[in-house]
Structures are given as structure tokens and as C-alpha cells.
Write a structure and sequence with these properties.
The complex is a heterodimer of chains A (121) and B (851). Chain A has two helices and eight strands; from the N terminus they run E-E-E-E-E-H-E-E-H-E. With 121 residues, chain A is mainly β. Chain A has one domain: PDZ domain (Pdz3 Domain), CATH 2.30.42. In chain A, strands 1, 4, 5, 6, 7 and 8 form a six-stranded antiparallel sheet that branches. In chain A, strands 2-3 form a two-stranded antiparallel sheet. Among the domains of chain B are: 135 residues, Leucine-rich Repeat Variant (Alpha Horseshoe), CATH 1.25.10.10; 136 residues, Leucine-rich Repeat Variant (Alpha Horseshoe). In chain B, helix 9 packs parallel to helix 12, helix 14 packs antiparallel against helix 15 and helix 38 packs antiparallel against helix 39. The termini of chain B are far apart. The chains are: A mainly beta (121), B mainly alpha (851). The interface between A and B is medium-sized, with 28 and 24 residues. Strand 4 of chain A pairs antiparallel with strand 5 of chain B, so a sheet runs across the interface.
């Protein structure tokens, strides 16, 4: 359970689920082409997890919403997953903005994700 | 033994001997050996066998010394019977009596033989019965059955020993044959071993022999290597028979039988399959270490595949195996999920009616339903509806398991789900059950399913759920495991759906109000009280409930609870401030006192819409506490406190009392709150308090209010129109001063933004409770912590007399940042999901980003 009570910066070892997400190209409201993932993240070492409505227990990056039929849903991402790594970047110790940047960077995301009840009982 | 044949045809049945048979009894000469056996012609033969003579016969129980006594008593008994029960006139001569005795003796052996060895009698031979009274059996008759049983036991013992000897001698030879290269030889050897294993003695011989492991290893090898059906059948049949005993199980386990048996689960031959699964079942039930072995051998996947067969008894065994394997083992549950287990199990529940199968299947689903990955799969496969089909079943264990499973699943089933009507109706009916466990489960499931789900709420109301719940609560008395979920369910159903108002009335009409207020008293614990406060608040939304609630004394009680919770918070924060460390919320029974405060003040806020209630509240001297609460750091608490003061301030006396408590200062502070609701309520209170102040004061106040509410960097929610109530606005627009503010006139728009996610809503819908780990009847509460919420801008309307709108909450997603130019087209922004920008505050509370 220390996966979800992780002190950022300390070493941690846990099982994880690999998820490969292929973003889809959509046009945003202004007509520009963007790569959409279809999920929302919250958290980060600059945030206060105690104020999270989902009651997260540490400063990791969490998936707070997965839209239906989105690339994220199809890739197997679920709400409240904690993203440990994305394309090699460590998301257990980064700010919210940095996490957003890393995720937006590439069209294909190879993520390692921890999920309560699955990667640990 | 030698004998002399006496004359044929012994004298029988003469005289007054009562007999049901004709006087003449033929004694065919084929009965010689029986005569011999009787000892006829022996010296000392008195006409019967072992009783008198004590000669060794095969009737041990009637031999020996005791025989004499028996003889005597029985004879005496016979005499008595003869004399008494049949009403025979007394007066036999001694000769006649002796004569009768002799005849009795002669037939005695026959009677006894008939009793013990009926198979040796000839057909048609009739023995005179000595039974004089048909209701009273004779001694021989009474002893007939026990002696027959004894005879069988002795026969068995003799055979047993024979079998055991035979088997012991044969085993080494059989082992050699089983290991032979020639398949035909192996096949015959396997069949022979199978035959041996059918009988108990030889079976034990096999198991207890020092070469048992070798034997079983040979069988297992034969199983794995042979393609021949007979060999397989023989081997697996043997293993099956051996698996009924502990040593057999151990031997099978140690010889690596499990992988071989699991392999057999793919066999197309039914008998092999049945033997294999039954053997595995026995191993799983009784042998340590089997579970791990079966899992390692890939047994789970095969068993799930077997669920497609349609023999109900077979399926019952398979599902029981799955349940044993999955219980407490996360990995197994995931494997079952990956093999499409949930779908098959739900199909079984739908298709069959054999009770044992339904029961075992429901147990597997129960075990799976605590796994968060399996839960959605089961729900999607229609699990809830399938379980609902059996809620009315006669079998109690089935109903109980279905209920537990439903309860575990119910927190995952709230989102979707058309077609839950049957389930909901079934649950409402089960509330009337006499079993406490059933009621508890049903209430818990209803509470979860109605949480945040409009459709379910409406359905339950329509099937009479409110009345049923109120009845349940009344009957439950002090049992909080029942009352708490029931109250939560009522709380859900009295707000935010089409029939909410009907529900609020229905609670009153079913006589629920007295019991609800009574439950607010001790010994109720905090979780229940918190739920009750939420329910009271919802009930107070209905004006017809105001007077009845007041008459029950709910206001007084709410104020008591408020005071107690408030003092608790004060005490804790003073302890913290004197010491060091972070102030955690003050918890009691898992409920934070801040939640109680917020709930109670919120309920009082709604109750204060009615003027009599306001008078009561004023009389309870609680206004100082409200004012104190304005200083609290939690925005929700500030909001409800300002709200209740706003209501109270609508009366002159109230306004005066508020001002006397020095509320002006904190309220002025709150004008600058970034929470719109807080600011608006604060403004309203200040405005009302200023009614009879001098004009210039009013003007200054207006300016102040305008500035604070309309200032540049204040977050305006979707560019909504006037935040001021019409009357407030009018004052700002002093007649000789055209107000050139950036706002036009227009109807304030009311938005209800639902994307607050799982925020702590005003409807006091708690989060669905976590599923019951460990399948126990656990506690129910698991509400979300209160988070900082900000209400929608429904304030615009009707602030003059009451805050009529249900206040939604939109919490952590910060509102659209409009900057300096205020966009006045509410239609554009209605319901638009603009991505929230990070707020400019350096102190980012918590937000999420869309990607």
C-alpha cells in the first residue's frame, strides 16, 4: 500500500500495469489539430492532496476522469489510476504542470500505472 | 456332529396351543442339515438349538448361560401371555403345560432361524407364531433385527479381511504391470486397480501400503501418458475412490496427481471429466497445498471454460472449486476475470433453477465482487439483474449470498443501469423480512443504489420505498446497522430528483418524523446522527414539514448537537494551538465534528425559512455560535452560517440580535471571500441589518458592497448577471443616480453545474460506500470529506425572502477566469465545459487538467 502513500523522492518498488495510449487527432474549437488523450489528471508535488475531492493520499499524478470511448478508455486507463511513469519520465516526483507537459509531448504514451485493488490487494 | 434321525414329523401343535397355522406342519427331509444344525438327536436335545444346550451354533447372542434364564423368563413370559393377554381361562393341567412347552421348544429354533437367517428358510414353510398379543412382539421378534445386523457385520468382517489380504499381495505386482510398456497391459492393470479401489478393504490396503506413493505415481503416469480410454477411466476412477480418504488425498497430492487431473479437465469423455473434477474438488476441500497446485497447473482457466456445460450437478462442483480457489486470492480473481468468468457465472444464475448450483454460483460471485476489477465486469454482464431474480427464493442461504453480492456490487452500479426496477422492487419487499441480516443488506443496497442516481431514486419512491423504509426504521429501534443505511436511503430520496417533494411529504405521512427526531437522541452514534441531520435538512425543504418538525423539538436537538460539536472543535483547536503539530479534524466514530456543525447549521438554515422556527431559534441563544462560525476557516461552514443569519435577519428582532453579537465585522471580512455564496450571503445579511440605519450609512454600505462584490479580480462564475437581489440592486440605484455599472438589467441566470464530480453536495448524497472486504457485514458509512465548495450563482433570485434554490456545488474546478472584461452573455456560457484555468492564487488548492 505504500504505492499510494508514497513520499515523493523516496525509493519505491511496486507492481504496475503497462498502458499504451495512442492519442487521437481532433480539431479543437478553433479548428487547430490537437492530439487528444481523453483523460484528466490531478495532483503533483505542488498540489495539496488533502484538498482533493477523491481523497487521494499522496502527491502523485492521478487520473481523475476518463472520458467514454476516448483513447484513454480504449487503452485501459481507469479513473483513480496513479501514473507512475510516462515515456520514461518519472511522474511520482514532479509538479502538475510538468506532468501535463510530459503527457502532451508525444503522440503515443507508454505509461506505467498503479491501480488499487489490482496491482496490490 | 452325529445325530440320529428321529422320526419325521415331529409332533407339532396339538392341544390348546394357539397357532395361526394348520395343525400339520410338513417337515421336508431336505431340511436334514437344518435338523443337524439344530442338534436334533443330540443327547440333551430338547428340541431347540443353542438356547438350552449351550452348544456352539452360529447364533452367538443367544447362547450360553443366559440362555437358561432367557428360556425361563421367556417361557414364563409365554405362560403369562398365554394366561393373561388373550383372556385364556386359566386351568391347564401340568401335563398340558408341559406338552405346550415341548412344542414351543421345538419350534423355537425355527423361529430364531427365521429371525436371523431368513434366507435359509424355505418358501412356504410356516412356523407357528408365538405371538399372543398382536401388539406386543415376542422376545425373538424383538431381537430379530439386531441379530440380523450382527450377522451382517460378521460376514463383512470376514470378507474385509479377505479383501485386504488380497489387495496387499497384489499391489506390488500391479505396480509393475502399470509401469509396463505395453499399453494393453497397462490398461488391464488400471482396470483391475479400479476394481480393487471400489471395495473399502482393498482401498485401505492400497492407501496404507508402503508402496502407496509408487502405486499412485504409476497411476498418474498412466494417466498422463496413455491415449487409451480404458486406462484413463480406470486410473482416474481409482484416484477418485482414493480421494475420499485423507491418506489417499495426501498420496495423490504428493505424487503430482494434480497437474495430471487438471489436464484431464479438457477430456471430451464425460465420465473421465466427472471423475477428475470430483477428485480435484475433494483435494481442494481437504488437502493442504492443493489450491496453489491447481492454480499453478492452470486449473482456473479450464474450470471457467467448463462452465459452459449444462449438467447442473457438475456445474455445482465446478463453481464450488472456483469459489475455493478464488477466496482471498487476488490473482485467481483476476484470472477468472480474464477468462470471462463473470459472464458465464451470470448466465448460470439466469438459466438454472437447481438450488445448490445457484447457491455455489452466488458464492463465487460474492468472492469476486470484492475485487474492484471484477466488479464492473459483473455489473456489465447484468449481474445485478440476475441476482435480483433470486431474491424471493425459498432458500435462505441463496438469498443471503445474493444480497451480500449485490451490496458489494452496488457502489459500482450507480452510474448506469436501466432495468434495475426488479431489483429495487425486490429489495423494498425484503425490507419486510423477519431476518435481521436480510433487512440490513437490503437497506444498505438501497442506500448505495439511490446515491446520486435520479432514476433509481424515482423508481424506489414509486414502488413504495419510502413507506417501507420508514416502517423498517420504526421496527429497528436502536439497531444502527439497519437504521443508518435506511436513513441514508431516505436522505437520498428526499432530494434532487423528480419525486423528491413527494418523498418529503411521504415521510411525514408515514409517521416518520417522530422516529427520526427520536433517533437524534442518544444512544445514536455520530454516523447515524450525521445522516439524520442531512435527512432533516431535506425534509425541511418541504414547507408542510416545518410545523411538525418544530413540534417534535428538532430545532432544540439540532442546536444541542451543534453546540456540542462546536465545543469539541474549539477544545481541539485550543489544544493544538497551545501545542504543535497539524490540526487534524476532530473525529468521533469516524465523523468529523466539522461535518456535524455544517450539517446542523445547514438544516437550521432551511428550517429558518419559516417564521415560527426563526422565533424558536432566536430563543435558543444560538446566534452567538453562528457568528463565531463566521470566523471558521472552512468555507462550507462560513456559507451555512452566513446563510442561516441571512434568514434570521429577515425579521427585525433577528437582525438586531445579530448586530448585537458583533457580526458586522466578520461579515464584512467575508464579503471579500472568493467563495461567491459566502460573499453573497454576507452581503445580504449586512444589507438587512442596515435597514433602519441612517441614509448615508446605507449609501456607504452599498458602495462597499458593490466594490467588494464586483471587484476586478473576483472570480465571476461564467459571467453571470447581477449577483444582487433585485431589492438590493434597487437601493444601489438611488433615484437620483443612474447607476452606470458594468451590468445591465436582466434576469439572473441560474446555472446548475453538475461537474463537481464527487463533491460534497448540498443534497447530502454521500459517496456510495466501499464494498465489503472480507464479505462480512461491515459498517456502511463512507461519506466523502467535506471539501471546499462554491455554490452556483443561484443567488440572484428571491433573496428577499428565502433562498429557494437548491444549492449545487462546484468545487475544485476553479471557475472561468474572466479577467477584467465581464462577458454578459449568459446563454453562451450556460453549460459550456470550458477547461478550467489554474487560478491565479499562488496557493493552488487542488485542480485537474484536461488532456
Amino acid at each position: 500500500m505504500s504505492t499510494f502513500f508514497h513520499q515523493a523522492g523516496t525509493a519505491m518498488e511496486c507492481l504496475s500495469i503497462p498502458i499504451t495510449l495512442h492519442k487521437e487527432s481532433v480539431l479543437d474549437h478553433e479548428g487547430r489539430e490537437v492530439h487528444r488523450c481523453g483523460f484528466k489528471i490531478g495532483g503533483g508535488i505542488d498540489q495539496d492532496f488533502r484538498k482533493s475531492p477523491q481523497n487521494y493520499s499522496d502527491n502523485g499524478i492521478y487520473v481523475t476522469e476518463v472520458q467514454e470511448n476516448s483513447p484513454a478508455a480504449k487503452a485501459g486507463l481507469r479513473m483513480n489510476d496513479k501514473i507512475l511513469q510516462c515515456n520514461g519520465y518519472d511522474l511520482t516526483m514532479c509538479t502538475h504542470k510538468k506532468a501535463v507537459d510530459y503527457i502532451k509531448k508525444y503522440p503515443v504514451l507508454n505509461m506505467l500505472v498503479a491501480r488499487k485493488g489490482v496491482t496490490h490487494s | 456332529m452325529s445325530y440320529q434321525m428321529q422320526a419325521q414329523g415331529r409332533p407339532m401343535s396339538h392341544g390348546q396351543y394357539v397357532s395361526n397355522s394348520p395343525a400339520d406342519l410338513p417337515m421336508p427331509s431336505v431340511k436334514e442339515h437344518t435338523l443337524m444344525w439344530q442338534g436334533v438327536g443330540q443327547p440333551g436335545y430338547v428340541g431347540d438349538s443353542g438356547i438350552q444346550s449351550g452348544a456352539t451354533t452360529q447364533a452367538p447372542s443367544l447362547s450360553g448361560r443366559g440362555g437358561d434364564d432367557d428360556m425361563d423368563t421367556s417361557e414364563g413370559g409365554v405362560m403369562l401371555n398365554m394366561g393373561g393377554s388373550s383372556g385364556y381361562s386359566a386351568g391347564y393341567t401340568q401335563d398340558q403345560v408341559e406338552d405346550m412347552n415341548a412344542q414351543l421348544n421345538q419350534t423355537r429354533s425355527q423361529r430364531i432361524r427365521a429371525a436371523m437367517f431368513p434366507e435359509t428358510l424355505d418358501e412356504g414353510m410356516e412356523i407357528p407364531s408365538t405371538q399372543f398379543d398382536t401388539t406386543q412382539p415376542t422376545a425373538v421378534q424383538r431381537l430379530a433385527e439386531p441379530s440380523q445386523m450382527l450377522k451382517h457385520a460378521v460376514v463383512n468382517l470376514i470378507n474385509y479381511q479377505d479383501d485386504a489380504d488380497l489387495a496387499t499381495r497384489a499391489i506390488p505386482e500391479l505396480i509393475k504391470l502399470l509401469n509396463d510398456e505395453d499399453q494393453v497391459v497397462v490398461s488391464h492393470a488400471a482396470m483391475m486397480v479400479h476394481q480393487l479401489s471400489k471395495k473399502e478393504a482393498s482401498r485401505h490396503a492400497i492407501m496404507n501400503s508402503p508402496q502407496a506413493t509408487k502405486m499412485i505415481a504409476a497411476l498418474v503416469r498412466a494417466l498422463s501418458n496413455s491415449n487409451d480410454l480404458e486406462t484413463t477411466k480406470g486410473a482416474v476412477g481409482t484416484l477418485h475412490n482414493l480421494s475420499h480418504h485423507r491418506q489417499g488425498l495426501l498420496a495423490i497430492f504428493k505424487s503430482g496427481g494434480i497437474p495430471a487431473l487438471v489436464k484431464l479437465l479438457s477430456s471430451p469423455v464425460e465420465s473421465v471429466l466427472f471423475y477428475a473434477i470430483t477428485t480435484l474438488h475433494n483435494l481442494l476441500l481437504h488437502q493442504e497445498g492443493s489450491k496453489m497446485a491447481v492454480r499453478l497447473a492452470g486449473g482456473l482457466q479450464k474450470m471457467v471454460a467448463l462452465l459452459q456445460r449444462n449438467n447442473v450437478k457438475f456445474l455445482a462442483i465446478v463453481t464450488d472449486c472456483l469459489q475455493i480457489l478464488a477466496y482471498g486470492n487476488q490473482e485467481s480473481k483476476l484470472i477468472i476475470l480474464a477468462s470471462q468468468g463473470p459472464m458465464e457465472l451470470v448466465r448460470i444464475l439466469r438459466s438454472y433453477t437447481y438450488e445448490k448450483l445457484l447457491w455455489t454460483t452466488s458464492r463465487v460471485l460474492k468472492v469476486l465482487s470484492v475485487c474492484s476489477s471484477n466488479k464492473p465486469a459483473i455489473v456489465e454482464a447484468g449481474g445485478m439483474q440476475a441476482l435480483a431474480m433470486h431474491l424471493g427464493h425459498q432458500s435462505h442461504r441463496l438469498v443471503q449470498n445474493c444480497l451480500w453480492t449485490c451490496r458489494n456490487l452496488s457502489d459500482a452500479a450507480t452510474k448506469q443501469q436501466e432495468g434495475l426496477e426488479t431489483l429495487l422492487q425486490g429489495l423494498v419487499q425484503l425490507l419486510g423480512s423477519s431476518d435481521v441480516n436480510v433487512i440490513t443488506c437490503a437497506a444498505g443496497i438501497l442506500s448505495n443504489l439511490t446515491c446520486n442516481n435520479q432514476r433509481n431514486k424515482t423508481v424506489v419512491c414509486q414502488v413504495g420505498g419510502i413507506e417501507a423504509l420508514v416502517r423498517t426504521i420504526i421496527h429497528a429501534g436502536d439497531r444502527e446497522e439497519i437504521t443508518e443505511p435506511a436513513i441514508c436511503a431516505l436522505r437520498h430520496m428526499t432530494s434532487r430528483h423528480a419525486e423528491a417533494e413527494m418523498a418529503q411529504n411521504a415521510v411525514r405521512l408515514s409517521g416518520g418524523l417522530p422516529v427520526i427526531v427520536r433517533l437524534l437522541q442518544p444512544p445514536s452514534r455520530w454516523p447515524l446522527i450525521k445522516a439524520l441531520i442531512g435527512l432533516v435538512r431535506n425534509l425541511a425543504l418541504c414547507p408542510a414539514n416545518h410545523a411538525p418538525l418544530r413540534e417534535q423539538g428538532v430545532i432544540t436537538r439540532l442546536v444541542q448537537l451543534l453546540i456540542r460539536a462546536f465545543q469539541d472543535i474549539q477544545r481541539r483547536s485550543s489544544v493544538v494551538s497551545s501545542g504543535s503539530g497539524q490540526p487534524q479534524g476532530s473525529y468521533a466514530d469516524g465523523v468529523r465534528m466539522e461535518e456535524i456543525v455544517e450539517g446542523a447549521v445547514g438544516a437550521l438554515h432551511i428550517l429558518a425559512r419559516e417564521s415560527h422556527n426563526r422565533a424558536v431559534i432566536r430563543g435558543l441563544s444560538v446566534i452567538p455560535i453562528f457568528v463565531q462560525l463566521l470566523y471558521n476557516e472552512i468555507e462550507n461552514i462560513q456559507r451555512v452560517a452566513a446563510g442561516v443569519l441571512c434568514e434570521l435577519a429577515s425579521d427585525k428582532e433577528g437582525a438586531d440580535m445579530i448586530e448585537q453579537e458583533g457580526a458586522t465585522a466578520p461579515l464584512t471580512e467575508l464579503l471579500h471571500s472568493r467563495n461567491e455564496g459566502v460573499a453573497t450571503y454576507a452581503a445580504a445579511v449586512l444589507f438587512r441589518m442596515s435597514e433602519d440605519k441612517p441614509q448615508d450609512y446605507k449609501k456607504r454600505l452599498s458602495m462597499e458592497l458593490t466594490n467588494s462584490l464586483f471587484r476586478e479580480d473576483h472570480h465571476l462564475w461564467n459571467g453571470d448577471l447581477p449577483l444582487m437581489p433585485p431589492d438590493l440592486q434597487q437601493d444601489i440605484l438611488a433615484p437620483d443616480q443612474p447607476y452606470e455599472g458594468p451590468y445591465g438589467q436582466g434576469p439572473p441566470s441560474v446555472h446548475s453545474n453538475q461537474d463537481g464530480g464527487r463533491s460534497y453536495r448540498q443534497g447530502y448524497d454521500a459517496l456510495p460506500v466501499e464494498s465489503m472486504q472480507g464479505l462480512e457485514l461491515g459498517s456502511h458509512h463512507g461519506g466523502p470529506p467535506p471539501s471546499a465548495t462554491s455554490p452556483t450563482m443561484g443567488m440572484g433570485m428571491n433573496m428577499g425572502h428565502s433562498m429557494g434554490l437548491p444549492i449545487q456545488s462546484n468545487n475544485y474546478a476553479p471557475v472561468d477566469h474572466m479577467g477584467s472584461d465581464l462577458d454578459f452573455d449568459p446563454l453562451n456560457h450556460m453549460g459550456q465545459a470550458t477547461p478550467p484555468q489554474p487560478p491565479h492564487d499562488a496557493q493552488a488548492a487542488w485542480y485537474d487538467t484536461d488532456l
